Description:
Blueprint: E1 2-6, H1 13-27, E2 31-36, E3 50-54, H2 68-82, E4 87-91, H3 93-109, E5 116-120, H4 123-126, H5 135-144, E6 147-150, H6 153-162, E7 169-171, H7 187-193, E8 199-204, H8 213-226, E9 229-234, H9 240-249, E10 256-260, H10 265-269, E11 274-277, H11 286-293, E12 298-301, H12 306-309, E13 316-319, H13 324-335, H14 338-353, H15 357-379
Parallel strand pairs: 1-2, 1-4, 2-3, 4-5, 5-6, 6-7, 8-9, 8-11, 9-10, 11-12, 12-13
The protein binds ligand GMT.
Amino acid sequence: MKIGIVCYPTFGGSGVLATELGRGLATRGHQVHFITYRQPVRLLNFTENVYYHEVPTADYPLFEYAPYDTAMASTLVDVASSARLDLLHVHYAIPHAAIAYMAREILRSQGIYIPVVTTLHGTDITLVGKNRSFAPVVQFSINQSDGVTAVSNSLKQDTLDTFQIDQEIEVIYNFVDFSRFTKTDKDHFRRAIAPDGEKILVHTSNFRPVKHVDDVIRIFQRINDRIPSKLLLIGDGPERQNMELLCRELGLCDDIRFLGKLEAVEEVLAIADLFILPSGHESFGLAALEAMACEVPVISSNAGGLPEVNLQGVTGYLEDPGAVEQMAEDAMSILSDPEKHKVFRANAYRQAQRFSLENILPEYEAYYQKVLDRASALIG
Ligand code: GMT
């Protein structure tokens, strides 16, 4: 197949997932065209069958806001017809589903029909999508897509509860690539971070308020009072400065390291004892899955799709968002018991295998085929 993929090229989960999906499809012989405003962060190496098309945004003094949607739709029309794409797969509904709808209709007027698959990732429904300034367009463009997928059952239900949807939503879970996310020997790195044998806790996110990074720090504080530990924070975003202030206020600067937008997350996960994700909402929790693939148990909230990934008392523990005390107790019950820690590590790895690239990629291929068959039956 020739597939066009539209996504955010950033460190966010939807962009990461879309890029890994495209790379995976390319290794299985599909031709994949990424159409984004910047080279996606996980697409920096040459990969056969992968093409990258940058969306040019024209600047003009009249524009206070450059019309990105129009530029992207025009690029989609151009790429879809010149590369003879079979299908467009857009990740994150806002604004990609609406742009793809516009491109599809322009192409239809030229006698070309290219079906659109929209994958919903989370905040495009649960946070931003339901905002009144976006909702009518989000609902319309989801309903107009030829196929719609959601990354968890929870997100599917949230979408049905939030909008009037007359489309079947297929759940296709996020996946992890074990050829990259696997526990490797990085003991020299562990000794540098935790020279006195401290436990190592890790959190990765975009530092938005929904991630409750302040709870991560407060959970850490409680653990560190009883079990000497280090906290590694990966990522960056709007809450970063507040979090640095909080570390100072709590006197934790020596034990907490802000690593920023690190590319090789797996090298940090290789030395992690526990991963913390206490989000107020989380439709899947790709960062937790990547940790589990590296044999790291997870302390998370029970929000959204997290219970579909992190299993209570098996791969970690889940508590209500904001339950800082309880999350700290859960963490210590694992960290203070080497035998339990070992079992949870093994369970995390086993559970992550359910979401391997090898298991999930064929689900996308089958879904594309279903959408293509349905579209060709409709247009005759
Ligand atoms: O977490 C974010 O704010 C980023 C967002 C995104 O679109 O990149 O993440 C969402 O999509 C990820 C990939 O499907 C999911 O793993 C995250 O759970 C989801 N985030 C939220 O629901 C908050």
